[in-house]
């Protein structure tokens, strides 16, 4: 692990002390801190105003009880979170995650990442995140509705289109957003469509929002490949995960000429030597929240399902050119990265939030692999959420093609920002450095302009 500048190390030590027992937040903070020593030297005004210390302290942290009644009539208790991290650029913006692993530390790491991700989009949105340790898997629609209504009964008082605009994340899709919005409308007695994004297209949602994170990740990877006069044409690709992000990364990579040969879920890996059948995969996943084992069964001899397998090990069996980790945090470790590098991986773009461990990121950097960090490469989702907010504000609805064109423009601009910033600091091609510094300086300048608040 690289050493931090003494001034930065002192700040980091205090962050870890004040936020004990939150390793994911520590990891996210350190990854940003490693890029900022040279920034504080070049711009001492940031240190003089304690910008970094202020940036690491959320403006507001909300924790609340969520009681609900299951189908057997038993009262269940979950914990809800909303961390409103930084509003220097605009209202807090970031998703809600419903998963049994969610803790305050999880939400803080996601919210911290969101500050920089949202800044990179160039749109007027601040950083926040929320969620609950509720697990929607295996629950009936009625149970999910009752939970969402209880969750929103507390959350509604903290959000608003000019205050905090949640969206979906893991475990929170169109069904959950619908229930949450319905309860918000019921409590407030107003149709404030801009208060949540990821809504259905028939009632204030935006086309492309479902596809946006996956599409955006591929667009970013495409821009990285172009710097080496390469494209997705003929490339063999691994995509981890099989949710919306993974699904639409698969679709877009295929459209650009790639063969996506494998993806994964929490149970195992499905491998198609000739490329995954996207339409069948989408049908299985969307029709009944099916598993990859169901896909393999329906696909027949063209596919093999490997229960409990490690997706990245496939790079040792067959040629893989591009990896798109699109599942969850810290899913790709140093050993996985070594497997990919030893077998000729060309580019990695993160479709999930912090899916690569610090050891994996260092392995990619040391080996000259093109690496797009999540705060840049997966910003397409929040960018399209901001486009949804624009449509809501103007009572308008854009076409799919127009919205996708806007998404493509945003992702190309993010790539250019990261690349140009990295080059200006003497490390061309270092997208981690470029993303961290570009996002930080934009937020820091806004914080300076507003005084000590």
3D architecture notes:
- The protein is α/β, with parallel strands linked by helices.
- The chain has 3 domains: about 5-55, no CATH class; about 60-195, Rossmann fold; about 210-375, NAD(P)-binding Rossmann-like Domain (Rossmann fold, 3-Layer(aba) Sandwich).
- Helix content is about 50%, strand content about 15%.
- It contains 17 helices and 12 strands.
- The protein has helices at about 5-20, 25-40, 45-50, 50-55, 105-120, 140-155, 175-190, 210-225, 245-255, 280-290, 290-300, 335-340, 360-365, 375, 380-395, 400-425, 430-450; strands at about 60-70, 75-85, 90-100, 125-130, 165-170, 235-240, 260-265, 270, 305, 320-325, 345-350, 370.
- It has a 7-stranded mixed beta sheet with strand order 9-8-7-6-10-11-12, sandwiched between helices.
- The chain is globular.
- The protein starts with 5 loop residues before the first helix and ends with a helix.
- The mean pLDDT is about 95.
